[in-house]
Amino acid sequence: xxxxxxxHFVSESAWDAAAVxxxxxxxxxxxxxxxxxxxxxxxxALPKKGSESVGxxxxxxxxxxxxxxxxxLVSVTLANDIVPLPLSLQLYVPMDWAADPERRAxxxxxxxxxxxxxxxIAIDEVRRxxxxxxxxxxxxxxxxxxxxxxFREALSxxxxxxxxxxxxxxxxxxxxxKTKMPARIGNQxxxxxxxxxxxxxxxxxxxxxxxxxxxxxxxxxxxRPMSARFARxxxxxxxxxxxxxxxxxxxxxAWLVCEERANxxxxxxxxxxxxxxxxxxVVGAIKARWSCEEAxxxxxxxxxxxxxxxxxxxxxxxxxxxx
Length: 323
Fold this sequence. Notes:
The chain is of the alpha+beta class. Helix content is 33%, strand content 30%. Strand 2 (57-61) and strand 3 form a beta hairpin.
């Protein structure tokens, strides 16, 4: 293929990825799909120097660990045990791009591509995959998605479990919180919670050091146990009706989990696992996202070189769509 032909294929030719996605997703489900499989939502950033690439903007770049000029894509990965398989990459188009007709026309952004928040892109991909028959039971994502009430509610409405990172400032109430309407005083129109709202960090701090337990969620291929200290408590997330600026009533009940790493750093998570779920099960779900990342740099390099190439080449040949 000449450079001219390649440029035309990449930048000008119109082709539908649906047929390729169908093959990929069917094979991915056959290899990894199960009710206990995980679907991992993440951002993939591509650092850029210029301003002409579609969607490029000054935004958080995970590849660099800071705000930088980059393109951002919402990635979706299916994982089972420590074996991951990327299923989808959808470009995030910032509002500045989506609302600029001149810029859109210059790079050929289709009319049907409009601004969508990252969580909306992610939930649309979740629904597309389920409709295609890809099996998974739990969705994982970092705090960039976990802070979003609408994202959590959309996953719950799909009947899915979720384990999502949140900031230490995430507002929560004790699980036994009640609300009641006050006596008619002034212009009070909203119920009053029986307990004050707290930050996630404050709720965990109240458990004390005894609230933490060492949990090993898996053993590496070299036999090294992967473990850390975790604490958890049931909470009502402050995602109910708004009562004022920055204030919300108690809403969804969930587990609030804190991970204390060896260096003292603490990470916080919310998960809708049932009340009788063991701590080890909840931790295993939370840490599956990092198991996926580690597998991508270790296990998959050797495992995929032999098996994946054979599996997929025979699959495409069988379908008569090999190159």
